User: What shape does this take?
Amino acid sequence: MAKQNQPDVEMLKGTLDMMILRTLVGGDAHGHTIAKVIERTSEDVLEVEQGSLYPALHRLEDRGWVSSYWGVSENNRKAKFYKLTAAGRKQLAYEATRWRQMTRAIGLVMGEDLAGSGGGQ
Amino acid sequence: MSWRKFFGRKRADADLVEEIESYIAEETAENKARGMSEQEAMRRARIKFGNPSAVRESLWRQNTIPLFDNVVRDLRYALRTLRRTPGFTLIAIGVMALCIGATTSLFTVVRSVLLKPLPFRDPDRLVMVYEHFRDPSINAQQFNYNPVAPGDFYDWRAQTHGFEDMAVLRYSNATLTGERGELPEQVSARGGSWNLFPLLGVDAAIGRTFTESEDRPDGNAVMLTWSLFERRFGGDRSIVGKQIHLDGKPHTVVGILPSWFNYPDVKVQLWIPYQSGMPPVVLQHHDFHFSTVVGRLRSGVSLESALSQVSAVQYRLHLANQNAPVAEDVASRTLSDDLAQNVKKPLTVLLCAVGCMLLIGCLNVANLLVARSAARQRELALRSTLGAPWLTLIRGQLMESLLISIAGGAAGILLSLGATRWLVSAWTNLPTAQSIDADGTVLAFACVLIFATALLAGLLPALLSTRRGSLAVLQASSRTARSSQSRTAMRKTLLTVEIAATVVLLFGAGLLLKSFWRLRSTDLGCVTENVLTMNYSLRSKQYDTPEKANAFNEKLLERVRAIPGVRAVALGSTLPGTGDGEDDIFAVAEHPPTPPGVVLPDALYRSADPGFFSALKIPLMNGRFFSSDDRTGRPQTIIISHLLAQQYFSGENPLGKHLRIPAFGDDEYEIVGVVGDTLYQIGRPLRPIMYLPVLHGKLDGLTLAVVTASDPLQISIPVQKQFAALDSQLAVSNVLTLQQIIERSLGNASLSASLVLSFAVLSLVLASVGLYGVLSYIATQRTGEIGIRMALGAPRQQILSLMLGDGLRPAIYGLLLGLAASAGAIRLIQSMLYGTQPLDPAVIVTVIATLLVVAAIACLIPAWKSSRIDPMVALRME
Assistant: This one.
């Protein structure tokens, strides 16, 4: 919503799918929960744009990485729950590996001392 | 997968709406838990979520296949537009249906007759070989491809090696009876040499084809065509091996031909071996030209080298038969060309005519669409200014013409199924070796046609209305009408082309029609009204002597003359106007002998009874008619036609002179009379004719002509009863009036003339509707201007002539353009014309006058309307 957030969100777009999948490792969840979990775990740095969350969920479902069902939320409301599929788990593993390689590579370029890899120095 | 998404997008959206609701509810609940008021909690939740429509739209887009979606939208729009103006839509679809239907029909016929390979084995290697006379003086067209004499054929086959094999065919007909006196029937037949069917690659459907040992003068094998087998023998397979009677002689059925076999034409009912029933001496003759030869080229041998061998053989035969009509050379054409030779030209002309009409139809629809797109001009300009891709706009515009073409095309294809059937039945000499049916190719052709017409009819208006720089359109008020100028110019151009094409069609139709009228009004040289004709032959054993045949013929004449209503009766062989029949060479006995190497003159010969000439009103120019004394056993007499007397007895009296006809032996025939000329075929030049007395025991190919006081067909049953009374086993065939025979021979000229005429009339209607439409459009555009002119004092006549000029200008340009184009088109139909000059002034004047009158009428209505405009109303309209 705040204008300066836009670029961040744009940059995160490619990773949103991965984060949704990661969130679902903890158990089935509906849209609201997924958004909240991402925001909380990122210590409120990341703000999930609803405009991309729902299309992303439908996209993941189309690709067969999550499945959905209508259930009842913690507050006794009807809600659509998303569940990680086996294919989704595989995809998550793949994306997570790629992500790690990427951040490490970028980190190296930026000359940062990466925890774990810089121990020897 | 994306299609599933595409069609499930409504459900996905509904799901999303619920999800959003559930999100808001969750968020509201959380907010409330934080201590906000109900309202504030809801508001915050909504703010946090953002615009639900945007989310829904983004999902919707994600589920959409954009191109398909747009096409569907265009389609829906076009459908709505078309439904809003049902009159226009129906007319446009009707025009397209007619044009596409007619074109498809003709294409079906053209494809089957001219393009599709014949249903024989390796048909490309099949050629017809004819004798060819080099001498140009006797080389009137019919001698270019002259029928072959049996003697020549057998020499060709034995002495040349360029052909795998050569086979020979001849005409025949027979009276078919059963063993137990079933109803006699005269059937058309062909004699074919035993190797004909293997050569073509055709096998019998039941039984077998002829063997070499059956192809003998005393051979008595017969093959039935499928249609005779089904019709007369009820499809009973046990007929194979049994006997049927032809002209009273038993023949054994050896096989049945397959049902698709309609070669050389559909009228042939049965086949006998070539030599069957032929006098052995005739088979050795080199100057009895009555057969056609088909050969199969040996693979690896060119047609030229194969023909040059045959040609060399033929030249030797020519040298060996001095004075006899044995050709010096041979000529050939492919079997498929040979079958289609009479229809190739008319078919091409008709296809061109129908193509012209299709073009006019397309232009007309284009013209109407241009007018309609005026209404959408502003919308399109706006969309293009807002950045709609040009292609998208074109697509939207094309959709309308595509829908019209598809609907019209579908109706047209159905129409063409019926039209093709009609055309095939109306066209009497279409070759039928190839079945004429719509098939996949025809369907594909129709589809291509549909898209081509859609493109042609839709693209012009679409390009026009989506032209760039359309900002001007937005700025322009309806009053300045500047933007519509290019539109009007476009419509006028379309109209000019349309009128030009119409003129070409009118011109062609005019020439064909005039030529047909010329044909119809040709004087045959004898009476043609109220003449009933029928054919019969006396071939059975009862008539084995000339006296017996004469007795039958005289008795028949006497009985028929006695029928009330009969004015006169003529008995002969071939009647005037019914074809060339027989011809032969002759020499005048009193003239010096023809030098060796010069072929003797040729004349048609006919048989006639004593009453023949007076019954048919063929005038006597000199001498006498035959009497009942000119018969078997008496001195040989002959009557010649005026032309023969003129050509071969110039300055001398032919009476008392003698003719020798080598084909009939050494007898000399005394000329006893000269009679008026008759045409052997309408549309063909006169040929000299010699008449021999029918009472010389003529048995074969007899024609009885009965001249009646009233409708001749009413006499046909009484006449046939007289035949039955004399011989119950005798079959009479071709019971027709002379008029009917002549009409039939003109049938194809009349068919092509009337078809081209109807295309031309239709095109004229289309063009005038187009003219009317354009002028009405211009008139509406200029209403304001006209109002001002009138307010400033312009008289009504001036307005009228202003508007008339506006409309007639494209008509006149089109007329000029069309006349210029006709000059090229004439060349195509020149050879189809009879007694008509290609630049016939009457036709030219009629075409110009017709077009101008129709154009003037089409223009007058809108022009008159605009001259009646009340200036006050016109000015207030803005």
Observations:
- Chain B has five domains: 2-64, 71-119+343-475, 147-326, 482-522+740-878, 539-729.
